[in-house]
Amino acid sequence: MHIANEERLLEALTPNERRALDGASRKLLASLETETFTARDSSDREVQMEITRNSVETKPGSGEWFTGKVYLDAVAAPIGASRLSATSVHFTPGARTHWHTHPNGQTIYVTEGVGLAQCRGGPIEVIRPGDRVFFEPGEEHWHGASPNRFMTHLAMLEVDDEGNNATWGDPVTDEEYGGDA
Fold this sequence. Notes:
With 181 residues, the protein is mainly beta. It has helices spanning 6-11, 15-20, 23-31, 174-177; strands spanning 32-40, 46-54, 59-60, 66-67, 70-76, 84-91, 96-97, 100-101, 106-113, 115-119, 125-127, 132-135, 141-145, 151-158, 167-168.
C-alpha cells in the first residue's frame, strides 16, 4: 500500500471524522507516505512490514507554550476514531513548558538528557532517560530541561471530543523553575 497524498487518506474517513481533523493533523497526514514490504519468513509464509515515512520538518515550539528554545517532531496525530497524539519534544538547557493541563491526562517518556517536572503545589522532580511521568486529567503541571542539560521526551496523550490536547497557562517563572534559565 502506498498513500500518495492527503486526499486519498481523507476519502477513507467518514464525514464526521474529516470534520474533526484540525489543521496540524491534516498537515501531518499529508506528509506521510506508507510503504508495505512483502517477504517470506522461515516457514515460507508471506509476511508484511509497513513503514510510514515522516517528512514533516522539526518545528520550533511556540512562545505561547514554552520558555526557551524547544523543538517538536510529530510522531502521531489523531485521525479517524484514534484520539492519540504523540510528539517528540526537544528542550534546550533551561527550556520548559508553561503551566498547562490536559483534558485526558498526559504521559511523558524521557528518551535522553536530564529534565524537571512539577505539579502545581508539589516538589520539582528530576527526570532521566527511561522515566515515565503521568499527569492526571486536569492536573496543572510543567516539564522541561534542567538548567544545564538538554532533555528530550515523548509526549503522549488523547485529545478530547473537540480535538483539544491542552489548556495553556502562565509561563513558569525563573523562581518557580529554580534554575538560571
